[in-house]
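re: ur msg from earlier - yeah i can do the S-adenosylmethionine complex, just paste it... oh wait u already did. ok heres what im feeding in:
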Amino acid sequence: MSAPTDKLFTYTEGYFITKSLLALWRLGLLGGADARIDPGKSAAGLGCDARLLRATLDYLVIRGIFVKDGDAYRYSEHGRELAPYYGYLPMHIGAYEPVFGQYEQVLHGDLVYGANLKRAEHELVGGMSAMEEHLLARLNTLMDEIAFTGVLDLGCGSGRMLAQVLRRSPRLRGVGVDQAQEACEKARQNLADEGLAGRTTILYGDAGRLHELPAGVLAQVDLVIAMFVMHEIHWQRSRAGVVSCLRDIAGVIGSGGRFLMVEVSRIAAGGARPGLRFVPEYQLVHEYSNQRLAGEQEWREMLAEAGLTVLRTEPAGMCEAFCFVVGVRE
Ligand SMILES: C[S@@+](CC[C@H](N)C(=O)[O-])C[C@H]1O[C@@H](n2cnc3c(N)ncnc32)[C@H](O)[C@@H]1O
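and the outut:
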């Protein structure tokens, strides 16, 4: 049994590893599995202090993420294994640093989320993009079994998800809705970069009020996707608002259409299984940023109230996230 101080320092270790990796991620140094960092060259190119950059890399060598390779650094086997997932760090930590970096002021009410405090959307957009790649593999498999021609992505963020769906076939059309201007701009850019702008419409608007979108824009939609956005609408519009939004979705897809909803299930106090990673922290950041997770069963009930039914439930390939394949109840 380790000493209490060791146990406590496990937490501080996690903090420093996370902060160091996040800094490297923000500097653009955490590339693919074969990333090789030459601190002299990188520091000069990025306008950083080479000595301090080296100190960070040396620290991460001690912590087993990098190994030295002459004057440069490359991933250890362990670091390489993590490489596809470093994008979780800006999504999970970086985006919420404005909140948790000022924790006490938030607790005192000097800073109030949504009034004079906001998460860092650009980190969320960048980080989600990395995460989407992993989720998408699963969703892609699910989509193989769904016939659709028009897809609507609610809270489309960077639009990368929409782009990947549209790449499946040139006959597909897409609409993305997001209420963050930054996300809409990023989505338009990403879709244009992929030559998909002609098949997509990105709308700045409220995904919780689909009936308020310009008439006709959703006419072709027979697949709606909501990845990690329904819990935002849950806070914004409460339970009744979610049910009304789900009714709108049912109206958009009609019978035969499908709704893919990806969420992380809320954990009741004391309900976390031993060793559960990520979800308790995910839940905490949501409490502090005007979002409200719901349990899997609660989502089923809201869907049922809106005339929808869960046809299939799949793990979404990310911690405890799940994906519902939903249809209109006959
Ligand atoms: C957690 S991100 C998920 C982004 C994207 N779906 C993904 O999985 O990569 C949530 C996104 O939903 C957007 N959002 C939140 N509430 C919204 C609403 N009521 N209407 C439209 N977009 C909303 C946010 O601006 C953000 O881009």
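cool cool. The first strand starts at residue 36 and ends at 37. ping me if u need the other ligands too
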